[in-house]
From TrEMBL:
Upper lineage: Bacteria, Bacillati, Bacillota, Bacilli, Bacillales
Name listed for the protein in its UniProt record: Alpha/beta hydrolase
Pfam name, any one: Esterase
Keywords: Hydrolase
Keyword Ligase: no
Length: 243
């Protein structure tokens, strides 16, 4: 293989049909330098796929870590979302939440693992999301613990339905989370109100730890914006892929 092929970054567009959602869902898939179908790779699944790639620069960060810091190559799957129905899909009380989580676990993951050289062990899958994307990622791990137990949460929107869900859990010792929250996220304006994300994350952290979850938690100077999350992305990736 030529040096050019080894070092190039490849992002391919895919479309998967969802019976659960009754629609086609667009994906963008990052294939690491030197991707080889005869090998196998861990997979990072990102909610808000377009934003993670364009604003979070997740593929750029991963490419650099692989090439410059000798990280193990990773496939990244960005799952696009229609912003007009994002809350209804990502929020546990949303009317599309059940269909979306079914799609993710029962349709998306098999699609990726059939089409790409993805490892099939739950320890090789990481779920990532910002705000409500962090929420649905955590709930996916709670709903499908046989598939997922690693969650990367950037300022997760852990509203009361998530707090109640955590209260109902007895043992979360299998859960492994990276959580970060900005110190300037005490009054975050959303399309359904203004909320104290810092408090929600602190409350969620306490409940997770009380139930045995392994959580790496940080509070940093930052607001509820991609400028903050992009800056912490290397640290978040480091937590899961350089241990």
């Amino acid at each position: 293989m030529s040096e050019t092929n080894i070092y190039k970054r490849t992002i391919v567009k895919e479309t998967v049909h969802s019976h659960a959602l009754q629609e086609e869902r667009n994906l963008r898939v990052y294939l690491p330098p030197g991707y080889n179908e005869l090998l196998s790779y861990p997979v990072l699944y990102c909610q808000d796929g377009e934003d993670f790639f364009n604003y979070g620069r997740v593929a750029t960060h991963m490419n650099r870590l692989i090439l410059d810091e000798d990280y193990e190559p990773v496939i990244i799957v960005g799952v696009d979302v229609d912003k007009s129905v994002r809350t209804s899909e990502y929020s546990p009380d949303g009317n599309r939440f059940a269909a979306y989580t079914t799609f993710f676990a029962e349709e998306l993951v098999p699609f990726i693992e059939q089409k790409f050289a993805a490892r099939k062990e739950r320890s090789e899958r990481v779920l990532a999301g910002d705000s409500l994307g962090g929420t649905v990622s955590l709930h996916l791990a709670l709903l499908y613990p046989h598939l997922f137990h690693k969650v990367l949460s950037l300022s997760g929107a852990f509203y009361e339905p998530t707090q109640v869900k955590l209260d109902a859990e007895n043992d979360l010792s299998g859960l492994d989370m990276y959580m970060t929250i900005g110190l300037q996220e005490e009054e975050v304006k959303t399309d359904h109100g203004t909320f104290d994300f810092l408090d929600y994350n602190r409350r969620a952290l306490k409940k997770l730890q009380e139930r045995g979850a392994d959580v790496y938690y940080t509070e940093k100077e930052g607001k509820h914006v991609w400028g903050f999350w992009q800056n912490v992305m290397p640290e978040a990736l480091n937590y899961f892929y350089n241990r």
